[in-house]
Hints:
The chain contains 8 helices and 6 strands. It is α/β, with parallel strands linked by helices.
Amino acid sequence: MSALTGKVAIITGAGSGIGRASALRFAAEGAKLVLGDKTEAVHETAQMVKDAGGSATALQIDAGVEADVQKIVKTAIETYGDLHVAFANAGISGGMAGIFDLTPEEWSEILRVNLIGPWLMVKHAGQAMMDGGKGGSIILTASVAGIRSGAGGPAYSASKAGVINLAMVSAQQMSETGVRVNAIGYGFITTDLTAAMVDHPHIAPRLRARTPMGRFGEVSEVAAAAVFLASP
């Protein structure tokens, strides 16, 4: 039996990168999926899952809007009858603009997507899991930027530090319900969003030098960690 056989999972940010890799890995491990993303690419991911023999429903949503998060949780339960896993992966980088260059609107938007979004998933998926009475796993996408300087822009770093604390506080609050909450604090991962930095002649060597394993991470490695956290 595969690690997620019979499990129903939500994955946001599933249109590309870590979200798409996680969708394919979750499906390969037997999960039925409800995939969310702000772009139409989420439908491509769902089709990839189906082509590989899996089950997936796609929704275009904004992970930082409460009604949209409620919608994806409701869709999972109505479509598959239950909810066991929620991977709040949607996020934006916001670039590397400094503290003095960001506007309040830019700062607010990064925190809306990267921090309010995961909180909304904890709130609504967590409540659904508690109501179901069988526990579950909530996984939040954090980052090494949340625990050290220089690994991301200031607003991005602040949002990820918030995600780390959100995971701890949420895990403690739901500790007796059977619902687990974890955050994946990965380092620099090669994705479409980070391609410019991977190829940059000055930024890439500096980032690589600060990475203990001497190379950038791959989306498949984050997907594997998510499967581990999602599994019983």
